[in-house]
């Protein structure tokens, strides 16, 4: 958020207005591309993202009448300006709300006679407060990267869990390759975010910022890329996960029939838990993916702006919710994977458990041993703990 110095408030504002380009093919009317406030010290200016190619409104600074001060603003949108499918419209005017209840307008001169437009709810300060700054919200590369990484992490963990149904072996290089592959594919899937966010140089004392724009200036291209991302990371993930579980489900059921009881094997219980977690995650992830993709496509629509304003009114609650959800995405797969892993528990607890008394021989629980003929030899298996090694005698 950009605000005036301590003890000062906004006293006037000006708009950076793009000219009217007409309604022909390829003509994109951006209207207002920047806004700046002049503070009461008459020197400090705070602004949103601006452009060096678009002039400021020739009308100059717009301020409230004498002995009044700005307490809020109201934004106006033009939804569709032409038959051009690439022109979805944008901000057409900003109305300053003064402390005496008056409204001072500053908007594109070619919009005369077309007021009022589609207007958003006015943002007004509480009683006794004044307007001191503004905030520009930009979605960046990291959000898409993390969202793409989550399903790949779960898929990789389920694959690793399925490997527990076979012979166990330690190979850190395989796990490292899986982790690096998840990061790489997630980054590739989010790389389009680098091209729909541009850096804008500030003018004079204004601050340089980033601003969200259509991908390569083409709205249809942005929608297509987002649709492909949703299909790969939300729908494609679901098919891969279900195929992996289906291939290993029969093997899990066979081992369950051999043991006769889930409680006899911590390993089987852990695998079953991971399968259930993956299925529940898939049921949540697909609807979430479509909602998220639809949000990004319609992000700049007036209706969505109104929702954002309602969200901003509960900013603390929303920030807490977003933080919890981000932590869940980042850490839940790893936590779930390591739950119940006795080898990990022993490895990390060993330095703290060296003084633990060992059970006496008399109090030790006798093992139940099963002798079975196997290819001309005898297999001795401990049925109390299937995690222990099997010993074959020939």
UniProtKB/TrEMBL annotation:
Keyword Glycosyltransferase: no
Transmembrane segments: 175-195, 215-246, 274-295, 320-340
Keywords of the record: Membrane, Transmembrane, Transmembrane helix
UniProt-listed Gene3D superfamilies: Vitelline membrane outer layer protein I (VOMI)
Signal sequence coordinates: none
UniProt keyword Membrane present: yes
Record's protein name: Uncharacterized protein
Species in which this protein is naturally found: Folsomia candida
Lineage of origin: Eukaryota, Metazoa, Ecdysozoa, Arthropoda, Hexapoda
């Amino acid at each position: 958020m950009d605000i005036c110095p301590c003890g000062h408030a906004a006293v006037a504002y000006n708009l950076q207005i793009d000219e009217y380009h007409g309604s022909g093919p390829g003509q994109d009317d951006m209207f207002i591309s920047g806004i700046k406030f002049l503070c009461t010290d008459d020197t400090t200016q705070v602004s949103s993202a601006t452009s060096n190619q678009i002039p400021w409104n020739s009308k100059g600074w717009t301020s409230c009448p004498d002995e009044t001060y700005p307490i809020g603003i109201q934004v106006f949108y033009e939804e569709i300006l032409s038959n051009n499918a690439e022109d979805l419209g944008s901000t057409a005017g900003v109305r300053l709300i003064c402390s005496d209840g008056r409204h001072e307008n500053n908007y594109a001169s070619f919009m005369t006679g077309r007021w009022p437009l589609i207007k958003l709810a006015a943002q007004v300060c509480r009683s006794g407060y004044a307007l001191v700054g503004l905030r520009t919200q930009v979605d960046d590369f990291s959000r898409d990267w993390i969202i793409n990484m989550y399903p790949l992490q779960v898929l990789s963990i389920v694959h690793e869990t399925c490997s527990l149904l076979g012979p166990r072996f330690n190979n850190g290089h395989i796990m490292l390759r899986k982790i690096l592959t998840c990061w790489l594919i997630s980054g590739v899937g989010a790389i389009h975010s680098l091209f729909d966010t541009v850096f804008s140089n500030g003018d004079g004392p204004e601050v340089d910022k980033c601003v969200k724009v259509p991908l390569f200036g083409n709205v249809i291209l942005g929608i297509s890329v987002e649709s492909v991302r949703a299909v790969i990371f939300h729908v494609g993930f679901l098919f891969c996960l279900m195929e992996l579980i289906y291939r290993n489900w029969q093997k899990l059921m066979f081992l369950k029939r051999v043991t006769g009881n889930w409680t006899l094997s911590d390993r089987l219980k852990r695998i079953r838990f991971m399968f259930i977690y993956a299925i529940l995650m898939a049921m949540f992830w697909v609807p979430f993916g479509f909602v998220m993709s639809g949000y990004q496509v319609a992000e700049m629509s007036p209706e969505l702006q109104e929702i954002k304003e309602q969200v901003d009114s509960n900013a603390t609650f929303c920030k807490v919710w977003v933080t919890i959800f981000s932590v869940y995405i980042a850490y839940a797969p790893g936590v779930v994977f390591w739950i119940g892993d006795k080898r990990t528990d022993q490895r990390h607890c060993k330095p703290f458990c060296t003084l633990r008394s060992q059970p006496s021989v008399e109090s030790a629980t006798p093992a139940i041993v099963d002798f079975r003929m196997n290819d001309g030899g005898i297999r001795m298996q401990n049925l109390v703990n299937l995690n222990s090694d099997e010993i074959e005698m020939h």
